[in-house]
Specification:
Order of helices and strands of chain A: HEHEHEHHH
Number of strands of chain A: 3
Number of domains of chain B: 2
Oligomer: heterodimer
Largest sheet of chain B: 5 strands, mixed
Largest interface: A-B, 85 and 96 residues
Number of strands of chain B: 7
Structural class of chain B: alpha/beta
Radius of gyration of chain B: 17 Å
Strand content of chain B: 15-25%
Order of helices and strands of chain B: HEEHEEHHEEHE
Distance between the termini of chain B: 22 Å
Strand content of chain A: 15-25%
Largest sheet of chain A: 3 strands, parallel
Shape of chain B: globular
Structural class of chain A: alpha/beta
Shape of chain A: flat
Number of helices of chain A: 6
Number of helices of chain B: 5
Helix content of chain A: 40-55%
C-alpha cells in the first residue's frame, strides 16, 4: 500500500495512510501516515460503531492538513476496546492464508519470503 | 505508548511482519530508487482547506461489487507467492449489501457486516455534511493487499487509480490497509 500511496501522491494528490501496522508502512516510505493500535480486518473500528469510526477517519484526514513534509507520522490515540487475545479469538475459525500453510509445512522457505526472491511457482 | 498492533497477531504472523518491516527499511536505505523506493519520498501539499477538498478512499481489503469480477483467490491458492494485483472501483454509496470481500488474509466478516470498517464512505459523507471535508469523490477503490511482487501494482494498477482520481477532481485520498 505504501508504494501505491507514493504513486498517487506523485500524481498530484495529497495522501494519507491509516495503518494498523505503521512500522511496516513507514519502512516503505510514505508522505503521511496515521498509526492506529487496532487489529487486522477492521482498521476503522468495530462494525456498527459509527461514532468511533468517524473519529478515526476524522483524525486520519486531519493529518492531510497538518503535515508539512514527507514521512510525517502521527500516532492516533485510540484504544481497541477488547484485549488482544479476545480480538485474535474473534477470527480463530478463519482459515490461515495459503502462504502461512505453506510455511508451516516448509519453514525453510521463510528466508525466500523475506529476501524478496519470490519463486515463480513453488508450492 | 508506541503503536503495537502486532499484539493482535499470532506469534508466527508477528515474526513475519516484523521481519518484513526490517527488510523494507533495509531496501529503502540501501537500494533507494533501484529497489522501487523513490528517493526522496514524494509530497504534494494539500492544495486547499480540507473543507473544500474532494476526498477519495482506497482500501486493500479485496472489496468488489457483487456484479464485478472477484479478486482471483484461486490463483493464490495455486501459488501462495502470488496475489491478484488489480483494482476494483467502488461507486460512492455502495454498502455491504452490494459487495463481497475476496482476500485470503483478511477476515471478511467484519466488513461484510459493516463496510465502513475498511471503506468508510458513510463516515466520509457525514464528515462532508458537517463541513469538515468538501465532498466524497464519486468513485472509491479497492486493491487486494497481499502482493509480494509489486511490479504490476506499481506499473499499472496505481497509475490507473491515480488517473481516475485526477479525472474526478480528487484533491486528497485516504488509504486503508486492511
Amino acid at each position: 500500500m505504501g508504494l501505491v500511496q507514493q504513486v498517487i501522491e506523485a500524481s498530484g494528490i495529497a495522501t494519507v495512510t491509516l495503518s494498523w501496522i505503521p512500522e511496516l508502512t513507514r519502512a516503505v516510505g510514505v508522505p503521511r501516515l496515521a498509526g492506529i493500535a487496532y487489529p487486522a480486518s477492521r482498521p476503522l473500528g468495530r462494525p456498527h460503531d459509527a461514532d468511533g469510526q468517524r473519529a478515526v477517519l476524522r483524525a486520519t484526514l486531519e493529518v492531510l492538513a497538518s503535515a508539512n513534509g514527507p514521512d510525517t507520522y502521527i500516532e492516533l490515540p485510540f484504544e481497541w476496546p477488547e484485549s488482544p487475545a479476545r480480538a485474535r479469538n474473534a477470527s480463530r475459525d478463519h482459515p490461515p492464508p495459503p502462504i502461512s500453510e505453506l510455511l508451516r509445512k516448509k519453514p525453510w522457505l521463510l528466508p525466500r519470503l523475506l529476501s524478496g526472491r519470490i519463486p515463480e511457482d513453488e508450492t | 505508548m508506541p503503536i503495537d498492533s502486532y499484539r493482535f497477531l499470532d506469534f508466527a504472523s508477528r515474526q513475519v511482519m516484523k521481519a518484513w518491516a526490517a527488510r523494507e527499511e533495509a531496501a529503502r536505505r540501501e537500494g533507494g530508487a533501484a529497489a522501487g523506493h523513490p528517493t526522496p519520498i514524494p509530497f504534494t501539499p494539500l492544495a486547499k482547506p480540507l473543507r473544500e477538498c474532494t476526498v477519495a478512499l482506497l482500501t486493500t481489503a479485496g472489496v468488489a461489487r457483487r456484479e464485478d469480477r472477484p479478486f482471483d483467490q484461486e490463483g493464490e491458492r495455486r501459488n501462495p507467492w502470488w496475489g491478484d494485483p488489480t483494482f476494483r472501483a467502488i461507486p460512492f454509496g455502495s454498502t455491504e449489501a452490494d459487495v463481497r470481500l475476496h482476500h485470503l488474509h483478511v477476515d471478511p466478516r467484519f466488513a461484510e457486516a459493516d463496510l465502513d470498517v475498511v471503506l468508510p464512505m458513510r463516515r466520509l459523507a457525514e464528515l462532508a455534511a458537517a463541513g469538515f471535508v468538501g465532498r466524497p469523490a464519486p468513485t472509491h477503490y479497492s486493491t487486494m493487499g497481499y502482493i509480494l511482487d509489486a511490479t504490476e501494482l506499481i506499473a499499472e494498477t496505481a497509475p490507473a487509480i491515480a488517473a481516475r482520481m485526477r479525472a474526478e477532481g480528487v484533491d486528497a485520498a485516504a488509504l486503508v490497509p486492511a
